[in-house]
Amino acid sequence: MSETKSGQKDAYELILDAIDVGLYKPGDRLVESELADRFGVSRTPIREALQRLETQRLLARDGRSLIVASLTHNQLAELYAVRAELEGLAARLAAQHAAPEEIKVLRDMVEEDRGLLDDPEALARSNRRFHKQLHLASHNRYLVQQLDMVHRTMALLATTSLAVEGRSETAVAEHDAIVSAIEARDGEVAGTALKTHISKAFETRLKLDAGGADPGR
Known about the structure:
Layout: H1 2-20, E1 29-30, H2 32-39, H3 43-55, E2 59-62, E3 65-68, H4 73-97, H5 100-113, H6 120-137, H7 141-154, H8 167-183, H9 187-209
Helix pairs in contact: 1-3, 2-3, 4-6, 4-7, 4-8, 4-9, 5-6, 5-8, 8-9
């Protein structure tokens, strides 16, 4: 039984990671046998993982097939609205509760990201690690659980907004402002800075989806 549970977890993470890095994009059909062959996992944990992803609405039905779900404009707006509020709360709590070592890790991440400005994909991976570290620094397990769910849904966005011209530099500057506020133990400023960061990311996402109008702003 424990092997089945372990296999299910592995298959779930493998498929989710594949969606997250764009190996499977919205609208792509996921075939149980093909996934089992690709990941070297038996079909039973693959089937259970697909059911779990469907329950989480990361996959959708297209006739008898399962495809990677896509987000409508309204769903995207709703996702970013929730993300802004939850991450703003995480930043406020991190300013209150984060250990000095946790804040140092966040600061180091910002400094390291300055060397990734010309590599949007690497910066996107680092960005996810930064936000995860900030969530953990809130020291609120229930908030972390909700943010994990939000960020799983973010995997449905096929491209990174950090690829838009000028966004990498401004995103790192926004991270710097968030960490500076946490270092100062100013929860209100940290929360506001985080919500502004998410708002700018959403604005960039809308421009990207519209075909890149005014991408350098």
